[in-house]
Amino acid sequence: MRRTLRTIGATAAAATCVLAATSGTAQAEAPGPKSLYAPSALVLTVGQGEDANSAAVERAVTLTCAPRPAGSHPSPAAACAELTKVGGQFAQLVNDRPDAICTKEWRPVTVTINGVWNGKHVSWAATFSNRCTMKASLGEGATLSF
Questions:
Q1: Which has the closest alpha carbon to 125: 74, 63, 53, 40?
Q2: Which residues contact 10 (CB under 8 A, 6 or more apart)?
Q3: What SS3 string covers 24-91?
Q4: Beta 56-66 vs 120-128: how paired, if at all?
Q5: pTM of the complete model beyond 0.70
Q6: Strand partners, 43
Q7: What does the pLDDT look like over 15-57, one tens digit per residue?
Q8: In sequence order, what are the residues at sequence separation of 6 or more whose Cβ sits closer than 8 angstroms to the Cβ of residue 70?
Q9: Residue 125, CA atoms < 13 Å, CB-side half-sphere
Q10: How far apart are CA 136 and CA 50, in angstroms?
């Protein structure tokens, strides 16, 4: 019995030494930037409805501009170049006075851009009275042609 207690005591002491040697406070590295570029990652949508909150999304694409153009957008390089040209001012992508002749039917279409542009959270939406008006207002620009 005495020998068993001595063996248990020695085993416990050895386990304590092992635990003391292997335990310690885990040191996590502070998160650092993974690149030298501010992130620019956007989700662009087109949906049927009067506003961004109630529109039924019909199409959506992703667009990443930094560190390099990518995403599910059909022309990411051209879209990123266009956004850089307007300084991320999405309203400049819309022509307020399009030259097209469209019907006056009310079937609203809402276009949205949400995400991060040059490290800042952005949220933008524009509603058009119908698809003809939307296409005429957006013109030939790359960013909102998806």
A1: 53
A2: none
A3: CCCCCCCCCCCCCCCCEEEEEEEEECCCCCCCEEEEEEEEEEECCCECCCCCHHHHHHHHHHCCCCHH
A4: unpaired
A5: yes
A6: 62, 114
A7: 444 444 444 454 545 444 555 667 899 999 999 999 999 999 9
A8: 64, 76
A9: 16
A10: 18
